[in-house]
Amino acid sequence: MKNDKEFSLIEGLSKMLNKGGVTLGVGDDAALFGETLIAKDIMVEGVHFTKGAPFLHVMRKIVTANVSDIAAMGGTAKYALLGIAIPEGYRVDPADLVRSFEIYGVELIGGDTTSSKDSLFLSVTIIGEKNEHVLTRGGAKAGDLLYLSRPVGRVRELLEDEVAGGDVYNHYLVKAETKLGVLLGSTGTASACIDVSDGVGRDASHIADMSGVRIVIESDKMPVEHLSGRSDPVMYALGSGEEFALLFTVPEESKKEFEIMSAASILIGRVEEGSGVYLETESGYQDISQTGYEHKF
């Protein structure tokens, strides 16, 4: 997850950069230039993955992160560039480099390789095509409904097990919501969208800030049956990062139509006038705008 220093740096850069003809730049999940969407992610050993994580799993994670960004904009991922720094003695199978892109129908068209002193470093740029509608973080309006594409929290559980010494790496294998992204981008049903990389609380705050609204997540609507052993499963789920689910808003008048098109999506809250992100419980409201997950390996 990004820490406060990173968010501050991004905010500062966004104020300084000249868009130079780019339709959408810093502040959304991908940049839009004409019909083209471009997203970029980097992952570093010891920050985004452990030293023992299988390389194929690490590749799957970074490709998924980028493809998810394109999906969050309602687009379709097409091509990729890969940068990789490989430490001495680390074996990389070329087939593993390509396989994770093939899962999403993305063609690897180039990149760069180099050596590293002691840590594996990966950088992926995904190039995609926009659909009829481009989703942003800034379109939510009071009266809209808030949806989550699937339950979250299991990724956090598996990551914590791994950090504690476990050898199960399944949390790297979650898939980006490509079909839902295309559906939202094709129909224009969603008014705002983001993928869950920093936690539902923190990511909802990006929509709230960019849209100038207040978001309320209703505790009793959060899907947490899979986290029943937790003392506070709702807060645990809200703080789970790198889930790559989609979090999005839909106008209330489109509720029935949307739920027919996407029966698996989960209604978890609403959009109101105001600012911030709050969890509504029986005892009142709790500010969760900073609720997220930060890796500490």
Topology:
Blueprint: H1 4-16, E1 31-33, E2 36-44, H2 55-72, E3 76-87, H3 94-103, E4 107-116, E5 121-129, E6 145-148, H4 154-163, H5 178-187, E7 192-195, H6 200-211, E8 214-218, H7 233-238, E9 246-250, H8 255-261, E10 266-272, E11 276-281, E12 284-287
Parallel strand pairs: 3-4, 8-11
Antiparallel strand pairs: 1-2, 2-5, 3-5, 6-9, 6-10, 7-9, 8-10, 11-12
Helix pairs in contact: 2-3, 2-5
Distance between the termini: 12 Å
> In which range does the helix fraction lie?
25-40%
CATH structural fold name of the largest domain: Phosphoribosyl-aminoimidazole Synthetase, Chain A, domain 2
How many structurally independent domains? Answer: 2
Give the tally of β-strands: 12
Instruction: Give the integer mean of the pLDDT values.
Output: 91
Shape: globular
The low-confidence runs, each spanning 5 or more residues with pLDDT under 50, are none
Q: Strand sequence of the main sheet, in spatial order?
A: 7-9-6-10-8-11-12
Q: In CATH, what is the class of the largest domain?
A: Alpha Beta
CATH architecture descriptor of the largest domain: Alpha-Beta Complex
Rounded to an integer, what's the Rg over CA atoms? Answer: 19 Å
Main sheet characteristics: 7 strands, mixed
SS-derived structural category: alpha+beta
Spell out the helices and strands N to C. Answer: HEEHEHEEEHHEHEHEHEEE
The number of helices is 8
